Amino acid sequence: MVVRIEAMGAGAIWSRWRLWAAGCDFCGYVIHDVRMRFRDHVSRNLSPAVNHWIDLSPPVGWMSCCTDISVVTDHSRGAAVFRDSNNRVCCVWIERFAATDPSLAEAQMLVCAAQVAVRNRFLCVSFFCDNTEVVSTFLEADRQNRNLNLDGAAMMFRNCTKGFQSFKLTSIGREANFMAHNAAKWAKFNSVVGEIDLRVMDPEVFVDHKEWYPEPG
Fold first, then answer.
1. Which GO terms label this protein's molecular function in UniProt (predicted)?
2. How many structural domains compose the chain?
3. What DSSP assignment string belongs to the chain?
4. 39 lies in which domain range?
5. What is the pLDDT of residues 166-217, one digit of tens each?
């Protein structure tokens, strides 16, 4: 597989390698950071192409939940965005994890999202995740090639779903999952966890098909 470095955020990665080349003491930190960003990029490439106009609004009586993560060197933050059949965002939940492996962090966020849904008594929930490896493991779609590191989270997720009348778990492309991605990114910049007051979030976070960038300064 050929990976174009510009797709990984060339500015951020190149600046780190320049520091390393200059002989900075923290070259181990730099190498770890670049590897982490590369793993995250590759995990996104595993997601199949999807219809850009995918409808995330659930049917009447259901909630939809999109999840995603934002990984930094020593931890990750995940977001779960719940919306109702009127496409109204009802809840944004943020969680912090020690995991920096993208697939493990995505798996932990899905478990957290299911727990939040049970606590809020959402009876019918459609979950969307842009990591196909996680979705496949959770649905036991390919037991021979599953990621064993995700088995614990998969079991916890299945236990949580016993609290639902019905649920679905679907793989979604990043290009249709920016709202959850943006929420996780916003949480990383603001160092917050728990249920977020929607009024304090940048309105541009709540877009499905466009990445959010914080205002400079």
1. nucleic acid binding; RNA-DNA hybrid ribonuclease activity
2. 2
3. ----GGGGTHHHHHHHHHHHHTT-TTHHHHHHHHHHHHHHHHHHHTSPP--TT---PPPTT-EEEEEEEEE-SS-EEEEEEEE-TT--EEEEEEEEES--SHHHHHHHHHHHHHHHHHHTT--EEEEEES-HHHHHHHTTS-STT--GGGHHHHHHHHHHGGGSSEEEEEE--GGG-HHHHHHHHHHHHHT--EE--GGGS-GGGS-SSS---PPP-
4. 11-44
5. 999 999 998 999 999 999 999 999 999 999 999 999 999 999 889 999 876 4
